[in-house]
Each structure stands twice: as structure tokens, then as C-alpha cells.
Write a structure and sequence with these properties.
By secondary structure, the chain is an alpha+beta fold. The chain is built from three helices and six strands; from the N terminus they run ααββαββββ. It has a six-stranded mixed sheet with strand order 2-1-6-5-4-3.
């Protein structure tokens, strides 16, 4: 039987584990939280298709020291419970040497449950501050 609240926690856990891997600068581990066919839609850039294109982009992101917090706004699931989307806000703080650069934004992610692990199939994010 599908347990919505448990699956929401599982997605949040996958998200936390992904962010922790990024913080440790573990690119290969971070990429395990994305589908091989990921569609990443970053702000101001082209759509990235697949891990081959996502990898270099993600590597450049995790090279900058930053902190990130997420405020979850919405979760919804397919009838089968193996596909979900999430909507959230983020607060990101880049440490650029002597200057702390705060940024806020929002994102939409589509998740698929693969062998008891939630991975991101598609993601779109955009900063507004």
C-alpha cells in the first residue's frame, strides 16, 4: 500500500543526501540521484540532456562553496506512486572569498522511484534575488 507521508520523507531524504554529496564535492555520488536521461533546465542556459551534459554543469556548481536550504511547497504523486513532482523554494548563499552572496529561488523537480530510491528525472530552477 502506498504511504504518501513516508514517500514524501523518502524524497526529502534523497534531496538531503544529494545536497550532502554536493557539499562534499562528490560529483559521482551526486550524479546517482539523477536519471541517466535527466533533463536539467538551468536559468539562462540551454536544456541539459542526460548525465553526460549534466556532469560538467554540476561539477562547476559544486566547486563553489555554498550553503543551501530548501522550503518544500508541494508534493504530488502518480497513481502508482513511482512518479512524483515537487515544488520548493531555496535560499542559497555563495561564499565568494570575502563576500557572501545570497540568492533565493524556486524549483520544480520530477522524481522517479527506482529500486527504492527516488531520483530526479527533470528539474527546472530559477533565482529571483
Amino acid at each position: 500500500m502506498f504511504d504518501r507521508e513516508a514517500e514524501i520523507e523518502n524524497i526529502k531524504n534523497s534531496s538531503r543526501e544529494l545536497l550532502a554529496a554536493e557539499k562534499r564535492k562528490e560529483l559521482e555520488t551526486a550524479l546517482t540521484y539523477y536519471s541517466d536521461k535527466i533533463h536539467e533546465i538551468p536559468p539562462g542556459g540551454e536544456i541539459l540532456h542526460g548525465k553526460e551534459e549534466l556532469g560538467p554543469f554540476l561539477a562547476s556548481v559544486i566547486e563553489s562553496p555554498y550553503t543551501n536550504t530548501i522550503e518544500w511547497v508541494a508534493f504530488d504523486f502518480s497513481k502508482q506512486g513511482d512518479l512524483a513532482y515537487t515544488v520548493a523554494r531555496y535560499n542559497l548563499s555563495l561564499d565568494e572569498g570575502t563576500m557572501d552572496i545570497p540568492m533565493r529561488g524556486k524549483f520544480l523537480a520530477v522524481w522517479r522511484k527506482m529500486e527504492d530510491k527516488w531520483i530526479i528525472e527533470a528539474e527546472c530552477f530559477n533565482g529571483y534575488e
